[in-house]
Every structure is written in C-alpha cells, then in structure tokens.
Amino acid sequence: MKRVLLAIAIAVIAVLAWGWHANYSTEMPPSSAPGSAERGAYLARAGNCMTCHTDRGGAAWAGGRAIDTPFGTVFSSNLTPDPKNGIGSWSSDDFWRALHHGRTPDGRLLYPAFPYPNYTEVTRADSDALFAFLRTVPAVAKENTPHNLRWPYNTQAALAAWRALYFRPGVYEEDTKRSAQWNRGAYLVRGLGHCAACHTARNALGASSDMMDLSGGLIPMQNWYAPSLASAREAGVADWPTEDAARLLRHGAARGATVLGPMAEVVQYSTQYLSEQDAEAMAVFLKSLPPVEAAPASGTRQVDSAVALRGARIYGEHCTQCHGEKGEGVAAAYPPLAGNRAVTMPVTANLVQVVLGGGYPPATAGNPRPFGMPPYVMKLNDVDVAAVLTHIRTSWGNQAPPVTELDVAQQRGGAER
C-alpha cells in the first residue's frame, strides 16, 4: 500500500515538475572566448572533479567510481573526449547545460550525486575553460556503468519531482557591499568547491533546505560528520587569523588543527593546489559566516567508575606515547586532545572512525610527511573504544557526554558494509 501511495505522489509531482521544466528557459548565455585549457585544469582541481570521475585503479577521468547513496549506487560518468562513451561529441553548450541545469545533451536529468545544485553557480567562462581542459585529456573507450538505484528513485519522473522541490538553476551574483576577495571566496565555496554538499544537513530525500547554511551534517553512507563551518564549537574559523584558515585548506594542518577522513582527501587532491590568493579568499568568506552556536556538549551522564578505570588504562597503553599523559599532544606532530573541539563535539562519529580506522592527514607541499594514527579496529572491542573515548572526552578539562558501546557498534557496522 505504501508503495502505491508513493507512486501516486510521485506521479502527481512529476506531472507538475515536467510542466515547470517545460516552461523553464534553458537558453544558453553567450559563450566566452575559447576557454583556456590551463585555467580549466586549475578549476578542475579546485572542484576536485577527478576524484569522483576516476575509478580506483582505473584510467583518469574515465568514470566508473561507485558513489553509495541511501537510495542505491550511482556511478560517475566518463568525462574523457571519447566520442561514444565520454563527452567527445559534446559542445561547450552541452557541457554548460550539464553544470548549470543538470541535464545531458539529450535532455535527460542527472542525479544530484553530481553536485549541479552547487555547480549551477559556475560562470559560463569557467565552464568553457573546464570543457577546454577535458578535451585535452586522453580519450578512454570505457563504457559508463549503469546506476543501481532502487525504485522509484531510478526513474526520471522521481528525479523530476525531486528537482521541482529542491533545485533551481542560478548564477552567482556578487554582493556589491563586499570586497572582491570576499566575493571570490564565496564563489569558490558555493560553486566549484561545493562545500555545502558535505557540510549541510540533508533531509530524507537527500536534499538540503538551505544550500549555504554550512551548519554541519552527517555524510550519507560514509559515517563521517562534516562539522559546522559556522560554529566556534565545531569547525568555524571566525576567530582564526585568515592565514591560518588558508593554511589549513592548502596544507591540511594549522594552528593545532589537522584534517582527517573525507576532508583529508579533499585537501590531498584539491585544495592544496589552490593559489594563495584563492585559499585566502575562501578563508575570508568562511570567517564571515553568520555564527551558529551549537549547544555545548556538556556532560549529562555520570561516568561509571569501571568505565573510567578501563578508559584510563587503555589510554595509557595505546595513546600516551603520542598524545601525552595529559592530552597535551606533540607540536607539529600529534594534535592535543585537551581542549580540542573535535574531541568534545556532540557528534562522536568522527572520533569512533579515527580510533577504528586510523587517522591519516594528507601529504601536501606544506606538510609532506604528516604523522598518522594506526587503526585499532582489530585491537579494541566496542567496550574498549567507548571507554577510551569517554576518558578522553571527560579528562583534562574536557566536559562532554560519554561515548556508548552502541555508538561504537553503529559505526563499526557501517564501516563493514
């Protein structure tokens, strides 16, 4: 019965959606002068495009990388200039339509795993430059892998309904009251950088009500939490010097902070290649975000004495050598745990992930030999992980709720899927 009602609802919305799309103008803005392939290569790095469009162990830009979603698996497409399987037969107008409208040359709607809700703000000039660059990469005759999505999410009707509810093509409009540097940063964060794709919470249909609130969200299927970029209690940089925030983007480490998990991949393959000017522009914009004060993660449950003793013992056996007896860390090597906002955030997903799977900062020009943390997934059971994290979150002045065995079990189960 639920499937029938869902089908009826989708059909009704889809009829309205197709009507809206039929009346929506997809007129192309005039193409700029032929785009610079060299500039396009820089922009492709800024957008971290190759990471998704290259399968692990596969040819660059030939697609096929699986992107898991709550609705099934989407596979990235071949962006090489192969005329049959890639974009060799596309025009610059076709490429712009994909970025700006989320449509293929034949009019089919693209799935928003390709972040066109962000890329819609990319200028026509930058689109042309990206296209010019992609025309220069080696052509690979690799067929695109069909998506594997559950019904009804595998239908164009459902996608049209989703777009009618959550997507409007747009362009970046400069804020004339702000500096050129701020506008450049806003353009990169909102468009090619597509920061909101991770740092904004999503609803049950995978959409964000506000693409630019950047107030944090759990990354679907990855079990990592992208912290709020607007909260000083999470990952906000409003009170940071601009150069420190820019350094974190380019080097992966700054001011006692280190990027791990999915953000380490972003720095590794994308933001470390930003120019100093662009990194500073993004930092200026991020520093200006309206503050969103997340509730402090104050301790609400008393820690059981047996858990406290167990956690302290495990910390002494496995953690003290790097992080210090009092969680002070080692400068330029191991981050402090005392007073570390990554430790005391209400969402504990990242802490559990790091203990189970290890923590590996990116190797960058500014930090070529980063110190990493080994995984403990085979050494510590769920009770041990919960105990040691509870010890860390409640020691040396840290005041955060304990981590439960269930918290760990959920993360471990997600990592094994």
Write structural notes for this entry:
The chain has 417 residues and is mostly helical. It has three domains: 2-166, no CATH class; 180-287, Cytochrome Bc1 Complex, Chain D, domain 2 (Orthogonal Bundle), CATH 1.10.760; 305-416, Orthogonal Bundle (Cytochrome Bc1 Complex, Chain D, domain 2), CATH 1.10.760. Helices cover 41% and strands 5% of the residues. It contains 18 helices and seven strands. The protein has helices at residues 2-23, 37-46, 49-52, 92-101, 116-119, 124-134, 156-166, 180-190, 196-199, 242-251, 262-269, 276-287, 305-318, 320-323, 341-344, 349-357, 382-393, 405-416, and strands at residues 66-69, 72-75, 148-149, 217-219, 224-226, 253-254, 257-258. The protein has a three-stranded antiparallel β-sheet, with no helix packed on it. It is globular. The protein starts with a helix and ends with a helix. Residues 1-26 have low confidence and may be disordered. Its cofactor is heme c. Keywords: Heme, Iron, Metal-binding. Heme c 3 binds at residues 319, 322-323.
